[in-house]
Amino acid sequence: MTLATAQPEAEVRVDAALVTSLITNQVPEAAGFALGERFEGKDAIVWRLGDAWAVRLPRRQVAADRHVTEVDWLPRIGASWPFRAPVPVRVGSPNTAFPWRWSVVPWVPGEPATKAPLSPAGATQLGRALAALHTDAPVQAPRHPRKSKPLAVRAARFEDRLATLARRTDGTAWRLNVNAARRVLGRGASVPRPAATWAHLDLKGQHILTYHGVLAGIIDWGDAGAGDPAADIGQCLVLLPPSHWDAFVEGLGGLDMPTFARARAEAIDYATMLALSRDKTDVAAGWLGLQALGVAQHHV
Questions:
Q1: Domains along the sequence of the chain with CATH
Q2: Do the Cβ atoms of 219 and 110 come closer than 8 Å?
Q3: Which of 61, 71, 86, 137 lies at 20 to 30 Å from 1 by C-alpha?
Q4: Cα(298)–Cα(300) distance, rounded to whole angstroms?
Q5: pTM for this one?
């Protein structure tokens, strides 16, 4: 088992001249807006476009393949969401200069929750956002090749991560209770899943934006698709401190015991991935999540 890999190299060069050409030729009504700040993530490159918009372009084939959720489905399912999201307003076509579809989306202002945490009121708003998102997904809805699968199918990779974290004693004061983590995941994996709903499936703190503690928006929908709503709920249990869990569940409209068992298992699975990241913010979030879930301790 190895650490999460560094950001993969972009498979196509995206510069201001290319973006300007794409906009001019395919979205001429936006040609008068100036390009602004550029942001580059693992899967996409985003350019500000004027004050209210942004251009989102995949940077590698695997991201372009998953881009279908954002360009084909978000405009259908996101029109009435009670939260802001970069739902495409225009979709560009591939051409000789750029090989994949791309989109013009609303710019969602805010600070990542990793830097500006949600307040209890913001946690309630996050719960309401997920309640609105978690509607029945049709059979043709996209599915993430890993995150949409049941926990039991992902158990082998979880065991690999447990073994790696258990061996990691140098340079960290964190200690993982492997048996406790394994029990929680096993109990959650044994609970039957309901019919698939729409789910974000990548609710790390960098993808949840805040403004003075309230929810400003949810971004980066490249992994979204049909899945278990407990996956999103579990990721939020890692993001939020336990003191905010009741407010979050209030926003969800309640949480039954089978869903909580699956969500707690999903949370531990997700937190172990964060704890093995190369990103220090993710590592800290992962260990704090494991502590909140009762399977890790910090020794000073």
A1: 16-107 (3.30.200.20), 112-298 (3.90.1200.10)
A2: no
A3: 61
A4: 6
A5: 0.93
